Amino acid sequence: MVTVEQIMSHRVVTVEMDDRLATAKDIFDNVPFHHLVVLDEHNQVSGILARADLVNAISPNLGTAAELTRDIETLQKRVHQVMAHHPITIPPELDVNSASELILSKGITCLPVLVDKEIVGIVSWRDLLALYCGLEPLNGE
To answer: Does the global pTM surpass 0.70?
Structure first.
């Protein structure tokens, strides 16, 4: 039986709920992964910000000739305004079939992996698909 711990990414990048979307955009512009774990003031997982959430929240005119001040202002929104709240979390010993079922049944793209309420990893649908296709783990997408 393959467990989530065997395929999850141990490298988890986090942001805080009150960080601006500009911060998240800077991170996503410089890394290959698609999810940021959002922590509350007690360093507890409170949400997930997916790259797609960010893209949907900011103006499509950013960086183009049509860019206006109001387009730039979309980057001033806070992460908690666009993140997915109350993410489903899993323990590292969960088997990958159960993790896959959760992702499919809940219509989500990743699962934060916690031990004693502390983030230790993240597994995405890409990690699971790579496993099922016999590819090397993607280490977090």
So the answer is: yes
